[in-house]
Amino acid sequence: MDRKGLVAAWLAGEAIVIWRIVHKSHHIPVPGSLLGISLLFAGLALVSDLFPPATSIVTLTAWGLDIAALFDVLPGGLGGQISEAADTSAKAQGESTATASANTGG
User: Fold this and answer.
1) Which pLDDT tens digit goes with each residue over 16-48?
2) What percentage of the chain exceeds 90 in pLDDT?
3) Which helix (H) or strand (E) holds 80?
4) Which of the ends of the chain has fewer CB neighbours closer than 10 A, N or C?
5) Confidence at residue 45, expressed as pLDDT on a 0 to 100 scale
6) pLDDT value of position 104
7) How many of the other CB atoms lie within 10 Å of CB of 48?
8) Are 79 and 71 in contact (CB under 8 A)?
9) 51-101: per-residue pLDDT in tens?
10) Cα separation, 19 vs 61, whole angstroms
11) 65-99 as b/e, with b when 16 or more CB fall inside 10 Å?
12) Distance of alpha carbon 105 from the chain centroid
């Protein structure tokens, strides 16, 4: 993989962030909100420049970050399902702990 993959991952990440902001706020994002993601991908590009053998790993990391961001973008997607399941599990565990302590008198 070469620099083209990293640039494509950066553009995809920018598109995800822009889509998320437009979808939720119904206005185009301010430049500062895109600065953070641009700096992140610039840092990945710097690592790729300093350590050329790591270029493929850096590119895969960039695409992995895009996929992780995409899970939060999709309505009711995997990211939302995982957090909902964790909340439900925590509630159930809290209720069972409260019930157990009430039964033991503690």
Assistant:
1) 888 888 888 888 888 888 888 899 999 999 999
2) 33
3) helix 78-104
4) C
5) 93
6) 63
7) 23
8) yes
9) 999 999 999 999 988 998 888 755 555 455 556 667 777 787 776 655 555
10) 21
11) bbeebbeeeeeeeeeeeeeeeeeeeeeeeeeeeee
12) 44
d(CA 100, CA 106): 8
What is the torsional sign of CA 19, 26, 23, 40? positive
CA 75 to chain centre: 14
Angle at 104 between CA 99 and CA 105, to 5 degrees: 95
| Angle, alpha carbons 86-40-59 (nearest 5°) | 85
- CA atoms of 39 and 26, how far apart (whole Å): 25
- The angle that helices 55-73 and 31-50 make with each other, rounded to 10 degrees, is 160
Structure tokens of 13? 């990440």
Place of tokens 């553009």: 11
* Whole-angstrom distance, CA of residue 68 vs CA of residue 95: 31
